[in-house]
Design goal:
Length: 339
């Protein structure tokens, strides 16, 4: 079975071709970061218009690189949510139109299921069941993954997502959008322990997160004195340490709670080096092993949508002729994979 996948839920336009036997044959991506930078965040209408321009050429390139003709395909997967409504509709409309024209089944994929399954693209994929720490710009969740399609939410953030906390505090430090990677780079020049921000929810039992208080703490630190280069780096370091500490501690708690020994980390923040290093150490001490997608598959991409789409098409699921797009879509409302 071979599928074409399209991703357009936020500010990345992407297309990929995945073959069940031969693996990932092509993946193309265009990031709109430059387009949105002047505004300090994603402007939904600009994102939609740009997806309209980029998607079809990306699909053509992916198919050409994969030496795949439409008749070689068995289905088309597209991100159906959650995400920006207009952006989702561009990919959904394109995928549905191609599926109709090429007489193929289409499947609307849950973006977070894509993130969760991204590590399956690697040569050493994680075993099931496992605990997944999903850390993106919009979500921070701990999920028990019994199998593909079987997800139980263990805990999530009450307010800001981890990526959002990185981005918002980065903005307070005057860093350009998207702040996460920039803040991480600045943090490497900061001194460990020079400042310390609260680790929200750490002292409380349970698997919930809260990151909104971090913005206030950073704002106070920024206003407290002269914002020298060294102080900016120290603040960045302290922000990263607070987020990493919290994520690692709760992930270990989730392993204890479920009795599982495999942790999967995915989503954009999973690209963070300090987080990866910390989880490696903590999991090791816990007798557990951590799996990640390669860095380029932590952030949004179409390869992960292809993995989820292929699994669901293989199980006989597909969308009708309608165009599916949902801004909100709880992960645990997905149908199980077994028919
Ligand atoms: O998964 P993703 O690409 O998009 C969503 O589905 O949200 O995640 C994007 C988020 C952004 O908040 C970005 O700042 C953050 O991931 N991010 C990072 C790093 N790379 C991306 N945060 C911290 N350190 C990084 N290296
Ligand atoms: Zn994402």
């Amino acid at each position: 079975m071979r599928v074409l996948a399209i991703e357009s839920s936020c500010d990345e336009s992407a297309a990929a071709v995945l073959d069940e036997g031969a693996g990932l044959l092509a993946h193309e991506l265009y990031s709109q970061i430059e387009l949105h930078r002047a505004y300090g965040g994603v402007v939904p209408e600009l994102a939609s218009r740009d997806h309209v321009r980029r998607l079809l050429p990306l699909v053509e390139t992916a198919l050409a690189r994969a030496a795949t003709r439409p008749e070689d395909l068995d289905g088309i997967a597209y991100t159906a949510g959650p995400g920006l409504m207009g952006a989702l509709l561009t990919g959904a409309a394109l995928a549905s139109s191609l599926a109709y024209a090429w007489r193929l089944p289409a499947i609307g994929v849950h973006h977070l299921e894509g993130h969760l399954l991204a590590p399956l693209l690697e040569s050493d994929p994680p075993p099931f069941p496992h605990v997944a720490l999903l850390v993106s710009g919009g979500h921070t969740q701990l999920i028990e993954v019994a199998a593909i399609g079987s997800y139980r939410l263990l805990g999530e953030t009450r307010d800001d997502a981890a990526g959002e906390a990185f981005d918002k505090t980065a903005k307070l430090l005057g860093l350009p959008y998207p702040g996460g990677p920039q803040l991480a780079a600045l943090a490497t020049r900061g001194t460990h322990g020079a400042l310390s921000f609260p680790r929200p929810m750490l002292e409380r039992p349970g698997l919930e997160f809260s990151f909104s208080g971090l913005k206030t703490a950073v704002l106070h630190a920024v206003r407290a004195g002269e914002l020298t280069e060294r102080r900016r780096a120290d603040i960045a370091r302290a922000v990263e340490e607070a987020i990493v500490d919290t994520l690692a501690a709760k992930a270990m708690r989730a392993l204890d709670y479920t009795g599982l020994t495999t942790l999967v980390v995915s989503g954009g923040v999973g690209a963070n080096r300090a987080l990866r290093a910390r989880l490696e150490t903590s999991a090791g001490a816990h007798g557990a092993r951590v799996y990640y997608p390669r860095v380029e598959f932590c952030t949004d991409n179409a390869a992960m949508i292809a993995v989820a789409g292929l699994a669901r098409l293989r199980a006989g699921q597909h969308a009708g002729l309608g165009i599916e797009a949902r801004a909100q879509w709880p992960l645990d409302s997905l149908p199980p994979l077994a028919a």
